[in-house]
Write a structure and sequence with these properties.
This protein has 174 residues and is of the alpha/beta class. The protein has a single domain, classed as P-loop containing nucleotide triphosphate hydrolases (Rossmann fold, 3-Layer(aba) Sandwich). 52% of the residues lie in helices and 14% in strands. It is built from seven helices and five strands; from the N terminus they run βαβααβαβααβα. A five-stranded parallel beta sheet has the order 2-3-1-4-5, sandwiched between helices. Helix 2 packs across helix 3. The mean pLDDT is 94. It binds shikimate-3-phosphate.
């Protein structure tokens, strides 16, 4: 498998697993374009994610998310795409990712996820008791990220080390 064959790297993972940070470092290394799925949705809709959830519910958000994924993943340009944590819930989205890119799952311990997300109010699914919501959603999604080509536990790694691990595993895939 040539690197060129995978012209897109798709980062998946639960909220707070470091997808955005890692995608920034990866694009610097690869010289590829970076697309943050949530930022792209906010740009296209001209609304914040939390306002989309408030107006259209999670179901409405998921429709927009699938449209965005389809647009980004079916164009020709190489990119690193950081997806939202729930983008993997639809089989259609999973197929899109697998068919158009190398799918990399970032994992982290519940404690680390909670530490990373608890001060951020931008995630509508974590409103209320963030720690409890993280545990509930992690349980619901415990196998949701298993379909990835590559999986990295980021708990004890710096963002730089995660990037090195991705690039090393990617070479092994070739
Ligand atoms: C979601 C994760 C968020 C965002 C939305 C829903 C989810 O993205 O897409 O709030 O369902 O896990 P991040 O994983 O970037 O926080």
């Amino acid at each position: 498998m040539e690197r060129q064959q995978h012209k897109k790297l798709v980062l998946i993972g639960f909220m707070g697993t470091g997808k955005s940070t890692v995608s920034k470092l990866l694009t610097e290394k690869l010289g590829w374009k970076r697309v943050d799925g949530d930022e792209e949705i906010e740009r296209l809709e001209n609304k914040r994610i939390s306002d989309i959830f408030a107006a259209d519910g999670e179901a409405g958000f998921r429709v927009i998310e699938t449209q965005m994924l389809e647009t980004i993943l079916t164009n020709e340009e190489s990119c690193v795409l950081a997806t939202g944590g729930g983008a993997v819930l639809s089989a259609y989205n999973r197929d899109l990712m697998l068919n158009h890119g190398l799918v990399v799952a970032l994992k982290a311990s519940p404690e680390q996820i909670i530490a990373r997300v608890k001060t951020d109010s931008a995630r509508p699914l974590l409103h209320g008791d963030a720690a409890e919501r993280v545990h509930q959603l992690l349980e619901q999604r415990k196998h949701a990220y298993d379909f990835a080509h590559i999986s990295i536990d980021t708990t004890d790694l710096s963002a730089e080390e995660v990037v090195e691990a991705i690039l090393a595993q990617w070479s092994l895939e070739q």
